[in-house]
Amino acid sequence: MSQKLRKVLIPLAIIGLLAFLGFSLTQKPQAPDINFVTLEGKTIPLSSLQGKLVLVNFWATDCPGCIAEMPGLIQTYQQYKDKGFEVIAVAMSYDGIQQVINYSQNNALPFPVSHDSNGEAAQQFNEVRVTPTSFIIDKQGRIIQKLIGELDFTSLRQLLDKQLGRVS
C-alpha cells in the first residue's frame, strides 16, 4: 500500500469508527415486548403505551427507598397523567402478593400495579435485582433512562416537562 493511500485511508477509517461508536452510543435500546398483569387481572402490553412517556418502577413492600419514593411518585403521576405520562409499578417476585395488594390498597396507588410473580419482568428489563429501579421509556418505546435508587423528582419533572412539553 502506498504511503499516500495509507495517509488517506487510516484517518478515514478512524473517522468512520468514531462515527459508528457515536451513533451506537446515542441509540437507545428498545423496551422489552412485555405484558404486565395488574393486581386486578388486567393485561397491559407495554407496546400499547407507545405515544406516552412511561416510567416502569420495580419496587418491593419491604424496601425503605421504595416506600420513601411512593408519595412523590403518586404526586408526579397525578400531575402528569393527563399530559401523556404513565407509571407501571412492578412488585418484585419475592414480595408476597397479599403484601403488595394490601400496600397498594392502603396507599391508594393510582397507577397500575403488577406483581412480577415469576420474575419475568425483572429478567426482561436487564436482570433487575435492586429496588427501587426505574426505567423511563420514551413515546417511541425506547428506554431513555435507567435509574437505580430513589427517584430525584426534581430531575424527573424536568425530564417530563422536556419530553411532554410544558403544559400547565
Shape: elongated
Share of residues in strands? 15-25%
Tell me the Rg in angstroms: 20 Å
State the total count of DSSP E strands: 7
Question: Architecture of the largest domain, according to CATH?
Answer: 3-Layer(aba) Sandwich
Through-space gap between termini = 64 Å
Any idea of the CATH class of the largest domain? Alpha Beta
What keywords describe this structure?
two-stranded antiparallel ribbon, alpha/beta, elongated, 5-stranded mixed sheet, 2 domains, Glutaredoxin, 168 residues
Précis, in short:
The chain is 40% helix and 20% strand. By secondary structure, the protein is of the alpha/beta class. The protein has two domains: 1-27; 31-164, Glutaredoxin, CATH 3.40.30.10.
Question: Could you explain the architecture of this structure?
Answer:
It contains 5 helices and 7 strands. The chain is an alpha/beta fold and 168 residues long. It folds into 2 domains: 1-27; 31-164, Glutaredoxin (3-Layer(aba) Sandwich). The strands form 2 sheets. Strands 5-4-3-6-7 form a 5-stranded mixed sheet, with helices on one face. A two-stranded antiparallel sheet has the order 1-2. It is elongated. It starts with a helix and ends with a helix.
